Amino acid sequence: MDTSGDNDSNSGEDQTSLFNENISDDLLEFATVKDPTSLTFSISGEDHTLGNALRYVITLKIRLSIRSRSPEVEYCGYSIPHPSEDKLNIRIQTTENTTAIEAMRKGLEDLKTICDHIKETFIRSNRLFDIQQ
Amino acid sequence: MSKRNSKSQGNAERLEQLRTRVMIEREGVESISSSEFPYHSSNRHQDIDYIKEFIKKFSVKIIRKEQYDMEFDLIGVDAAIANALRRIMIAEVPTMAIEKVYIYNNTSIVQDEVLAHRLGLIPIKADPDRFYFKQANESPTDMNTIVFKIEHECTFSPKAREDETDPQKLYIGHNLLSESLTWIPKGDQEEQYASCPIRPVHHDILIAQMRPGQKIKIEAHCEKGIGKDHAKWSPVATASYRLMPEIILKKEITGDLADKFAACFTKGVVEVEDSYVEGQFIKCAKVVNPRIDMVSREVLRHKEFEDIVQLTRIRDHFIFNVESTGIMDSEKIFLDSVHILQAKCKRLLAALDHKLREQERDREQMDIY
């Protein structure tokens, strides 16, 4: 348990130390609908922090993707229905090329990749700064 | 023909500027919103993988670093991401703080609840990574709770003169300070934290003022928490960003005007240099350090500079300032915020898979019936 210092293992992967709650059944909710291209995801315990970041990442996909050369997402927006309710709604509408669930998954993975890169770049710059001092 | 070409060239430049810059005009700030969304006029609609593009463009520059105070630049990132990280640093990076106070005796004039609140706000130097969150149904253990105790009494100083009026000399222990918080190690905490004993970050925080005969005896329990629940758990004194200012000169400013121009900005932003033009030395204004400019817009008030200068901010250049309360190093607070944003994504991905499997199961059940 001696994990003092700046090694990544102690804070990165050990989610129990950074999060209060475990994955519960009502963390994420969405309806089962006939049309898979439009869905509203309801996430409990999240706010603008994740809402806006996720909206941004998913919205980027409205641009033409390389492979299909056609847009994947038609609309993505988020709202916090009421300030006293700890809840975040994300609406995704996609084209026929994909489904809303896929767009959501891709968005979350992209945000993960972005975080990874920010972390790596920061650590590298930080080390460089330490050497130069 | 050439005229049209130059015009479209100008338009393209203008669009590029609107895309990458926030314009600071005389009457207000223009072109505020990011145009990083589809079908926007300034979008180039390139066939690019935006994640690859981000990885190529993104860079971090550390400007100033002390243990508890840090300035760094995130370049090439959207406000949505930068703001998420800033919000997480303030509200979601966990620390340890006094949460429960058991008051055995308090005859001071500070009411019990006020005393408890003041104790809660004292930053506690303890590595939050080495503790767990205490769940509501859990009892305190050495893995989720730190115990402090205060036993304090104020008395007359026997050495004081009869007519003494200075409380400093007249009383002993009339100021109850944070140094009076004594850590009571539980379980194996003593061995675990032998190298870094748990203590309040500052020893001289005034908790209560007392008079002879007044006593305080309490036991305080620290728990792990986040700033969202209460500001006492926030690891930062400030965590903020601003956009990099940019001062564009469309024409050279010379002579006495140069001095006037330099005076419009924060000291050190514009310097007046002597430059050699057409056989003589003349004064010439040069923008040397736009970073420190406070963007007062003073320059836009003067007619003579109206068409010469353009003030902007670079839309994807964030100057972060992270000042810690002294519990964690600033760099660690930022890294933790990135970890937390990433952990949120992982958690949601797991929840998404879980939900899909559940729906699949329900569908199979429906098929059976």
Automatic annotation (TrEMBL), chain A:
Keyword Protein biosynthesis: no
Keyword Transcription: yes
InterPro entries per record: RBP11-like, RBP11-like_dimer, RNAP_AC19, Rpo11-like
Record's GO cellular component terms: nuclear DNA-directed RNA polymerase complex; RNA polymerase I complex; RNA polymerase III complex
Domain DNA-directed RNA polymerase RBP11-like dimerisation: 39-120
CDD domains, per the entry: RNAP_I_III_AC19
Pfam family name, one: RNA_pol_L_2
Name used for this protein in its record: DNA-directed RNA polymerases I and III subunit RPAC2
UniProtKB/TrEMBL annotation, chain B:
Location(s) in or outside the cell: Nucleus
SUPFAM superfamilies: Insert subdomain of RNA polymerase alpha subunit, RBP11-like subunits of RNA polymerase
One GO term (biological process): DNA-templated transcription
Record's keyword annotation contains Heme: no
Keyword Transcription among UniProt keywords: yes
Domain DNA-directed RNA polymerase RpoA/D/Rpb3-type: 69-351
CDD domains according to UniProt: RNAP_I_II_AC40
Top-level division of the source organism's lineage: Eukaryota
A GO cellular-component term linked to this record: RNA polymerase III complex
GO MF term list: DNA binding; DNA-directed RNA polymerase activity; protein dimerization activity
Keyword vocabulary terms for this entry: DNA-directed RNA polymerase, Nucleus, Transcription
Family: Belongs to the archaeal Rpo3/eukaryotic RPB3 RNA polymerase subunit family.
Protein name: DNA-directed RNA polymerases I and III subunit RPAC1
